[in-house]
Design brief:
alpha+beta, two-stranded antiparallel sheet, 10 strands
């Protein structure tokens, strides 16, 4: 292979690695609450199901929020990946403040969101951490939203609008959103059908 071709391929590889790192590398923010308001949820009494691939989607609530992205996890091989390729851990209120987040280790794995602290007490009361942060499964409504989700990095402030939903698969599986910001454990994640997402 000619030397110039090796150089070109190496340059393309480095550019790809840099692009991936830039897309997912965390953005540093100064201390202060960056997303002060709770998400807005308006429940839907009798949502009309609509199809999305191999799933039937039933709206449970209209949902919107402005929040800080604490972490992201991308999935390609698990059961829900075709419907929801990305989870975001979001924070609002004091969970959008860098001075609070500095006292927490935040991670995601297996569609769960984890936080821990290494001091006798968490930086803010535990009920506030629970109320002001959540792991959310993102279901892009279309290719435009899918592209927007791909570009989001931890540290971004995003505004999203969409639906909390229940998804029923042709295989009989069900994925139902949490309807509360104060629950924890299995079933506490929001399943969000995202109609728009903007990085602020």
């Amino acid at each position: 292979m000619p030397r110039w071709l090796w150089i070109t391929l190496a340059a393309l590889l480095l550019a790809t690695v840099f692009a991936i790192h830039s897309r997912h590398g965390e953005i540093t923010r100064a201390p202060g609450v960056l997303a002060p308001d709770d998400p807005v949820q308006i429940d839907i009494a009798h949502g009309t199901p609509f199809p999305d691939g191999d799933y039937s989607i039933t709206p449970l609530a209209n949902f919107s929020m402005t929040a800080r992205v604490l972490s992201r996890a991308d999935y390609s091989w698990d059961r829900g990946a075709a419907l929801s390729p990305t989870d975001f851990a979001f924070g609002w209120g004091r969970m959008s403040d860098s001075s609070v987040l500095a006292g927490l280790d935040i991670s995601q794995s297996g569609r769960w969101y984890y936080y821990q602290w290494h001091t006798p007490q968490p930086p803010i009361p535990l009920p506030e951490i629970i109320h002001s942060s959540a792991n959310m499964h993102m279901i892009p409504a279309d290719a435009t939203v899918r592209g927007q989700i791909k570009r989001v990095r931890p540290g971004d402030i995003v505004h999203l609008e969409g639906l909390l939903i229940e998804a029923r698969g042709k295989d009989g599986s069900t994925w139902r959103s949490s309807m509360s910001r104060d629950d924890t454990g299995d079933g506490a994640c929001e399943v969000v059908y995202v109609r728009s997402l903007v990085v602020m």
